[in-house]
Amino acid sequence: MPTLTVVIPATDRPWTLGRAVAAVERASDAPEEVIVVDRPQRLGPAASRNLGARRAAGDVLVFIDADVEVHDDALARIRKAFDADPALAAIFGSYDEDPGAGGIVSDFRNLLHHHVHHQAAGVASTFWAGLGAIRRDVFLELGGFDELRFPHASIEDIELGMRLYADGRRIVLDPSIQGKHLKRWTLVTMTKTDLLRRGAPWLRLMLEQRSNSTALNLGWANRIGAGTSLLLVVALIRRNVSLAAGALSLLILLDRKFYRLLWRRRGARLAAAAVPLQLVHRLTSVAAVPVALGGHLREKRRPSRL
């Protein structure tokens, strides 16, 4: 059986760190090694994970965020997956359907992540480092996370996943590998993260690599939803009631499985609040397009450095 090293980036010393470490230690198939990277301070998560990986002795690196409380069987599932499939390079899971932070925005954002990952189970073309594992030799061979490009929390895991996929490595999304997300979200932090830390950087990466990925949030249903959300706003501005009603109906239809999940887990209050929150989320992805395109064009105009 492969040996596991858990790496937890925690240079900002979050209040959730103790719970994250305790969950790893009480897991049914505990790892051989746990590395908490809490120094130097203000080191970004990409660099922190790389530092932990260089110190690690395990065959498989299991990256767990400091605000994720893994389920008891998560590490056992990871170990068994690598043992059963020698060709498996990386595997990642999802948040569970019972977020730990509380509050409407936090519940919405964390359950949205859960829903997206469960809809995309199977062979993947990306990676997630919130609760994801990769063979250490593969990780080192590919150079780890790009800590120069991503000095702050961003899409460093997605970029690594794209390199893994381009190199012909096998990646799997297994949503049965779960952890409870303890992060507290506000509308401001959600919008800022979706626009500046994820949406725009992800689209810039696709422009640079001329990729047309439909992984996770880039699926066609999400693209149609983004366009329909923009149409809804235009209809409201023009006071076109019939067009607005049609656009809203289509949005609810597209996300009906997600709303059923919210109703089942948190009731009618969250399901109702999720409609405008999902609209904000969709419109943020629309706003990311000109931001990404502008950054891409500025980068291309810069003189190359010899």
What does this structure look like?
With 306 residues, this protein is an alpha/beta fold. The chain has helices at 17-25, 45-55, 74-84, 104-119, 136-141, 156-166, 187-209, 220-237, 241-254, 256-266, 268-301; strands at residues 4-9, 33-37, 60-64, 68-70, 88-95, 122-124, 131-135, 170-181. Helix 4 packs across helix 10 (256-266), helix 8 packs across helix 11 (268-301) and helix 10 crosses helix 11. It contains 11 helices and 8 strands. Helix 1 (17-25) links the parallel strand 1 and strand 2.
Number of helices, counting only DSSP H or I runs of 4 residues or more: 11
**Rg for CA atoms:** 20 Å
Shape: globular
Q: Report helical residue fraction.
A: 40-55%
Ends: how far apart? 47 Å
Structural class: alpha/beta
Count of beta strands: 8
Q: Low-confidence spans: pLDDT under 50, at least 5 residues?
A: none
Order of helices and strands: EHEHEEHEHEEHHEHHHHH
Give the percentage of residues in beta strands. 15-25%
Largest sheet composition: 8 strands, mixed
- Average predicted confidence as pLDDT: 92
